[in-house]
Write a structure and sequence with these properties.
single chain; alpha/beta; 10 helices; 10 strands; 43% helix
Length: 318
């Protein structure tokens, strides 16, 4: 007989409670539940919040984790999106489980000083006349509380849940869904880090040392040294990325030692001197350009292009 799976929405402020959210999701998956969270569709504006409301309609249970931050405030309502989610769930009559992070476990960096009063009022609202609220001091304590609470809530407040009607164990679908959500989360991180070509819309000054030391052939009583000529060149940052990126894509390899040669060849400088090289500071600036926003990564003096870097090169080609 197939198990019934319950959809559980996990709500909280995000950056300060990432680890707690992850721990709760693990517990829910082991308890025949499918966790759904705002990180899949962060409610940072009203349009997205309307979508979240359409999701909340069909969840079986709602878990609220409260720490030291009140969250992003909607200008029209004066409430945080987390509190707006909570109010909507109350309207829908969905069972709510509240977990409060103990004050002793909240660091100063995790406290939202500007909205302390709003946070206190929200905590009072969320816990008032609610028997099933808990205070935790660490993640292990939270996991135990969630496991006990969700198990009890299934018996106290039975919900429709869902059963896969065709075939197979529904938990395999839950695990696969969780894997795909994590994969999507990682791809989103890469996308968030991807560089805009606007970051390359400026020039950099390169100092090229042209020529090489010349020693006289004996016409002088002492060796004659000719100093290298300094040539200062302004180069578009985007051109540097394109030249080095094209070379990498063609050969699959780009070493740190090749930077000077490739850049100088692209400069097309006219000089009778036989040697051209960038000075140390110029090379360091080029490396910074390549590593900005993860266009390339640098390992053992070799550069490797990233997915966001490939996207930049495609944009530069257009």
């Amino acid at each position: 007989m197939n198990k019934k799976i319950y959809q559980v929405f996990v709500s909280s402020t995000y950056t300060d409670l990432k680890d707690e959210r992850s721990a709760v999701e693990q517990v829910l998956i082991s308890s025949d539940c499918l966790p759904i969270g705002m990180e899949r569709f962060p409610s940072s504006n009203l349009e997205q919040f309307e979508y979240i409301k359409s999701v909340l309609k069909y969840v079986d249970y709602y878990i609220l984790i409260i720490g030291g931050r009140y969250g992003t405030i909607n200008e029209e309502t004066g409430l945080s999106y987390t509190e707006m989610e909570y109010d909507y769930v109350v309207e829908q009559g969905i069972p709510i489980l509240v977990f409060l992070k103990d004050d002793s476990a909240i660091s100063k960096e995790q406290i939202d000083i500007e909205n302390t009063d709003k946070l206190k009022a929200f905590i009072t609202k969320a816990t008032n006349k609610r028997l099933r609220s808990h205070t935790f001091r660490d993640i292990n304590e939270l996991k135990v509380q969630v496991l006990q609470s969700i198990t009890s809530e299934k018996n106290i407040s039975p919900r429709p849940g869902w059963i896969r009607a065709d075939f197979g164990d529904p938990m395999s679908l839950v695990l696969e869904n969780n894997r795909l959500m994590k994969e999507n989360k990682e791809l989103k991180k890469q996308l968030d880090r991807s560089i805009s070509t606007k970051d390359l819309d400026s020039k950099i000054e390169l100092l090229v040392l042209a020529g090489k030391t010349v020693i006289a052939d004996g016409s002088f009583p002492f060796p004659y040294f000719k100093k290298e000529q300094e040539i200062r060149v302004l180069k578009e940052k985007r051109d540097i990325v394109k030249v080095l990126g094209d070379k990498y894509l063609k050969s699959g390899d780009l070493t740190r030692g090749e930077l000077s040669t490739l850049i100088i060849d692209d400069l097309n400088l006219e000089t009778n001197y036989q040697q051209l090289k960038l000075d140390t500071s110029s090379e360091e600036d080029i490396i910074k350009i390549l590593l900005i926003n993860d266009i390339f990564s640098l390992e053992d003096n070799r550069f490797k292009i990233t997915e966001s870097g490939k996207a930049v090169l495609r944009e530069l080609e257009e």
